[in-house]
Amino acid sequence: MSHEALNPIYPDVLPYLDPTFIKLYNEHVANTPAGPIDLSVLRSKYSVLYSYGTGPAPDCGRIYDSEVPGQNGDLIPIRVYEPSSPGPWPVHVDFHGGGWGLGDLDTESHICKHIAVKANVVVIDVAYRLVPEHAFPIGILDSFAALQHIYSKGATEFQIDPARISLGGVSAGGNIALICAHLARDAGIPLRIVAVGTPTIDDISRYNRASDSPWPSMQEMEHAPTLNWGRLKWFDNLKWQSLASEGPLRESQVAAVKWYANALQAPDFTKLPKTVIYTAGCDPLRDEGEAYARKLMEGGQ
């Protein structure tokens, strides 16, 4: 599959884009030769590329790495960002984006620093395990296990106030934060707020083409630069290929997916924490994110 994000911008997308972006893209990206998508290459470059569009991040009081239990008690890495003020602090738990198969503790370090300093909170960034090495929905299961540990042990381990927890993330990380809000409600873990950007919501494995999707934004932005239908399908295939091909193992893995493949199918949208969802106009995920927000409003928000 060609690296479609490096091809020239489709004419029908140009009216939606800022002229400054178009100029930068045409000068530095559009003429890059297309080639196969290599997951190892994407992983090696993802965090660096992700940081290009951000301003300089402020200095935190302290930053350190640690570990918490993930799914089945397996330890997963976290990075903790402390403000300069004395604790105990509120805590914001961040789940990075990356299509379930990319991202690490460097991906959103700039975002975590901004939040820690400007909101005066501890930020704990969670490095959940990735597909295809681990079967979907490992990112959700690891992240919720991390949240449970932060809630139950965080007062002593991280000097946080467990009554003041917020969650956040972008793209796949936004999906994780939204789903963890359902799981936290059911587990009796109080959350103050969930704030996510451009979350993935729907299960696009149900659609063979962008025109099959019920979301106008998926059709309008089928050929958008950086994130488009081709790239979304590539990541989605990676997610489902992480499951065993057949037999009892696949059956148990499919059962573990539950409604997580499509957050719109969550069984209960009531009594969820206050939630803020940011969408982007030139994003194929825009309309499904807004549809999820409407489900929250119907549930009482």
Automatic annotation (TrEMBL):
GO terms, biological process: antibiotic biosynthetic process; monocarboxylic acid biosynthetic process
Transmembrane intervals: none
SUPFAM superfamilies named among the record's database cross-references: alpha/beta-Hydrolases
GO molecular function, one term: hydrolase activity
Domain Alpha/beta hydrolase fold-3 positions: 93-300
Name listed for the protein in its UniProt record: Alpha/beta hydrolase fold-3 domain-containing protein
Species assigned in the record: Penicillium malachiteum
